[in-house]
Amino acid sequence: MEKVFRTESPDETQAIGEKLGKRLKPGDVIALIGDLGSGKTCLTQGIARGVGIAQNEVVSSPSYILINEYKGNIPIYHIDLYRLETAAEISDLGLGEYIDSDGICIIEWAERMENGLPNTCITIHITWEDENTRSIKIQHSIS
Length: 143
Fold this sequence. Notes:
The chain has 143 residues and is α/β, with parallel strands linked by helices. It has helices at residues 10-23, 40-51, 87-92, 96-99, and strands at 2-7, 29-34, 67-70, 76-80, 104-108, 122-128, 134-140. Helix content is 25%, strand content 28%.
């Protein structure tokens, strides 16, 4: 299953994320793929709101600490692999514990995990169409 959306502002990107967040369930894994600054964290902020993370809780990129945890109706584990360069570094994080949890696992730069993602993950590609417009392609494979 594949859906494509176009957004022209951070608010629109967050709104797509919020709609998605309302449909997620425990154990879902989201693989976010896109260039630096394309809107991965912005989409994650919307997902967090859709899952019930409080409006006043700051949802930010975990680039330097690698993993942020948010407590909502369903826990969210927000992982950023940008600063990791090798499969061994990623393996050392022990992400299986998060991926196999009863929370929602959102992984930015997920393409760096190679074959470490579950077959049932939801893959989201975010690409720039022009200075203001993003294309958000959501692919969900069911096995």
